[in-house]
Amino acid sequence: MENMLKIAIQKSGRLSEDSINLLQKCGIKINTSLNRLKTEAENFPLEIYFLRDDDIPKYVEDGVADIGIVGENVLFEKNKNVKKALNLGFGKCRLSIALPKDKQYKSIKDLQGLKIATTYTTILSNFLKENKVKAEIHEISGSVEIAPSIGLADAICDLVSSGSTLLSNGLKEVEVVLKSQAVIIQHANLTKAKRVLLEKLFFRINALQTAKNNKYILLNAPNKKLEKICSILPGMKSPTILPLAKKDWSSIHSVINEDEFWDIIEKLKDEGAQGILVVPIEKMII
Ligand code: ATP
Ligand code: ZN
After folding, report:
1. Pick from 42, 47, 151, 161: CA 20 to 30 A from residue 32's CA?
2. What's the pTM value of the predicted model, to 2 decimals?
3. Do 74 and 175 fall within a single domain?
4. Span 131-148, pLDDT tens digits
5. Do the Cβ atoms of 177 and 123 come closer than 8 Å?
């Protein structure tokens, strides 16, 4: 069917659950029974392909899928003709160079002449070129972190999140090559009809992301403090004020940003606010 958006997501791996969750939180009903390669959403014109993450950029480039969810690490490594459309904020990790922990390391120049094992040959070779370091890149497809201990390489370039895998393999992280997160990529030339569907999907994702960065706040304050307190609270338009049953007191409701959260709470307390409640917001449309 032409007027159907096709999305490729990772079949099984670190991005699978978050990708499915994202669609479900957008109100899209998906049947996720195991071992499916393809499924259709029940209440949105969306077809979902479950693939290996490495294959997703190519599928999107070719238009077999219209959009896809991959880590930026895969996007940059595959270097296909696709557009990055949206950061998703999950699947955060970094692509780093690590050395055996007893090896001396002062600066990037110490990588000169080393043999570095990686699956990310494109990104690594660009990084080395940019930093004018000549090193040998040894491509391997998995279990990169054991390469130094079995004498296959002097160093590795691999994905890290907590760093515990590096530690348990006697390695130390010395350079961050790339900071990565999951993103939505899109085909370079989508039809008008598909772009309309995509806008609809992005509108929902934006509502989730905005909600995540904001909290709903309720508090009580004496009326004589209202003006001061309202000047601290931004709100979507302005705060809501409701009278309390207790004379000369009001309840104030507003929305505050995660980044300024503690700052605002402290100021509110200083101004005499009481019974402060902070509630997560599920979706937010500005
Ligand atoms: P596939 O079978 O689909 O090829 P994979 O083994 O290549 O799977 P995963 O290990 O599931 O891939 O990782 C998928 C993506 O998750 C990575 O490309 C990266 O963007 C992200 N990620 C987040 N944290 C980590 C981490 N600590 N190690 C590896 N990948 C991570
Ligand atoms: Zn992969």
Report:
1. 161
2. 0.91
3. no
4. 999 999 999 999 999 999
5. yes
